[in-house]
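Sample 3 of the quickstart, ligand zinc ion:
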Amino acid sequence: MRTLASVVALVAACALAPLASARTVLLGRSWQGRPIHAVEVGNPSGTPVVVVGCIHGNETGGIVIARALERLSPRDLDLWIVPDLNPDGVAAGRRQNAHGVDLNRNFPWRWRPFSGVYASGPHPLSEREARIAHALILRLRPHLTIWFHQHLDLVWASGGDRRIERKFARVSGLPYHPLPPLAGSAISWENNTLPGTTAFAAELPAAEPGPVAVARYVRAVIAAAHAP
Ligand SMILES: [Zn+2]
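Result:
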């Protein structure tokens, strides 16, 4: 009930109309056949915003935030939520997908061959899951994309609009850190190939966020979407 209460309070605070207008879209399937869904809420004519709850399978804290976002209906945002881009990794409790590839090194911008923990795959976009996100983002060209990670406890800002990233940091309470771009990362690909858009990583602390924290991160997403 606390979760519901906090979401209701959040909805009131943000002057959002709670509508039952969420649309679930099957984007594709993982290598092991698990569905990868997006949920679209808000106004399809509004500003496109994408939130990815999980790309590294052992960093699942953003999934509960994604689920809370699905309950909103921001009237000026076309909010696309991908709770879990790496369901095989989540099922296995590991960072990589079922091929042992770090999806966040499999994107085209400055892709380089890496092995081990950060294995980048045989070539850019070799992985289904990366192609699914790549296609969605190219189709929507989101004004803002927020990728949830763990466990660095900071906003990893590497190339987007700093005013937007700082807004998220302020509202969420995560420290703001300008950090270098990463070869093959989804965020660096977006920031370097989609001019005028912003993507950043929200690195949550290690623990699963509780209801109060979830409500704060949801507020931060909405605030960042409206910044600067
Ligand atoms: Zn991560």
